[in-house]
Every structure is written in structure tokens, then in C-alpha cells.
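Reviewers of the previous submission asked for a worked example of the structure-prediction workflow described in the proposal, so we include one complete record here. The input consisted solely of the amino acid sequence. No template or homolog information was supplied to the procedure at any stage.
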Amino acid sequence: MNDQKVGTNYAREICGTFREIAEQTELPALKDNLLALAGDLEPIVTKLYFKTQKGTEDMQKMAADMVELKSKLLACQDADQAKTMCDPVCDDLEKVIHHVKTMKVRMT
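From that input alone, the workflow returned the following C-alpha cells.
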């Protein structure tokens, strides 16, 4: 399996984790935020890997972090606490999504 395919699979796994958390959480703001982020991320997973040069190791670490975050978010009953835990991850992903959507690739 080539590196791009593996990295792309990890990005898809991250989207799946967001959707799982959204289904199981009782916090509407968290649910909306995660579904929106997954919705933005899913259509660009192949471009995400290509344009950001994120290696498989980076995607693997991010997917592992999502598993830990998932257990913390599902145990959380306070919306502010969930937002505090989720914001760093969401902010990083939103920056990457913006970068992918606005970056032009020049083929020579």
C-alpha cells in the first residue's frame, strides 16, 4: 500500500471518529461543530494529504489523538469543558482545511 493511500485512510478515520462522537454526545454545540468539520474534511482528504505533505506518521498520530479525545469528550457533560478540549484540534484542522481549499498547485 502506498503512503498516500495510508495517509488518506487515516484522514478518513478522523472524519469517522468525529461523526461517532457527534452521534453519541448530548452536547448540541459540540455535535454541530464536529459534523461541520467532518463535512469540510471528507471531500478533501486526498488533497489534504497531497497539498499539505502530511506524512503517514502525522496522520497516524492525529488519528490516535482522536481516539483519546473521543473518550474524553464522551465522558464530558459540560459544554464549556468539551469546547476547551476540542478547540485546539478543531483549530488545527480548520487551518489545514483552509490551506487546502485556497492553495494553488503549480505543475511544471
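The mean pLDDT is 80. We consider this example representative of the routine output the project will generate in years two and three.
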